[in-house]
Amino acid sequence: MGHEKHNIPLLQGLPPVAPRPLPGVVDAPVFFRRRGFWEGVLGVGLVWMMLGLVAMPSGVSFNPGKLYQGSLIVLLYLPAWCLALSRRATIWKGLLPLPAFRVFLLLLAWAALSLLWAHSRHPGDELSRLLSVLAFLLAWPIWLGDDERRGHRMLLLAGLGIALFAGGYCVQYLHHPPEDGRIVGEGVIATANYAAAVMGAACLWLALLPVADRRVSALRWLALPVLLTFIALTGSRSVWLALALCAVFTPLWHPGRAARWLAGVTLVVVLASCIWPLPVLVERGASLRPELFGQSVHLIARHPWLGLGQNVPFTLTVAGVDYTHSHNVLTQTTIELGLPGLLLVVVLWLMTAWLGWRHRRRMTGRLVLALWVYASVVLQFDMPQLLDSPRPSWLLVWLPLALALWLELRARADAADAPRLH
Fold this sequence. Notes:
The chain is mainly alpha-helical and 422 residues long.
């Protein structure tokens, strides 16, 4: 009825108008919303986690200090969780089918369940420690992605940084030698065995990783004697034994004449040390390890199935001295998590070795095997805390597991892509 001429003009021809932001609401900077930004922060966090172990001051009983822990929340844990939950949780979908990752999650779940009978004063702190271990494990596959060399460069950088601190501690040792004559570091590694374990792990990275640049390779070969000197000054026999066994077993996963020569020379040195032991190797005896093991077994017998609970404090009294842990990863795990926890740890550790062996043709696989042999020896004598705040045991247990999971993840992805190429 003639209403057409009164219609409102169409808005399609008008230029778009940008919506005005609501008052009091500020958009996050663009770089905060970019995956590359969080990956960069994650890379810094992974390096800082390793360097902070040897550099940052500690709290009570050599626990990581608040400043170190706070920096890891910002640089490592938060980026790891953000990236793990982004892109429709792709990393979770890749890891969940892996049997080793499922066993790891079962271990975390059992440790969390044990808080019901642990009667901990701060159960939230224990849960946060479990989540931090999970974040560290997730961080490595996220950082590596499909580029194995990213992990190699990171470990190389961390190893050189650790060697730099080792050199500084050696200079400090010359000026102010301790009363017992054993060098230590600062913070978390303020005990000889803990410090030697970190330096020994860095030795393995630097010795195994391929370095194309001659200048960086020269730095690597300068760093190795510094680290070995530090280990010698600690007097840690378990670390020397672990490094020796790594050298002996190297031909199993690293074929070549150089590996066989290294294994042969090391075996001769070990046999000679057994026949004509140096005083430094025998003067401290067994360091009360058999007595500690006996006390641990008695404590395990009281709570064999459930254990005391995740991170419950206990005391072992040997020769009039109180010890707050068992100095052995297997007995420590059984004391806290019972026989089910011990079974999960053993299965997980064997699966780590199997994954490393399956992928021994890759450099990362050989690194997993070397760290596995090294940790299997060192953890029988000290550093038994697995599900705890950042400690040297993270580099000995969770690092090789994370690398092994990435190897299997990468292999499955390559196998899935193979049919598409044909």
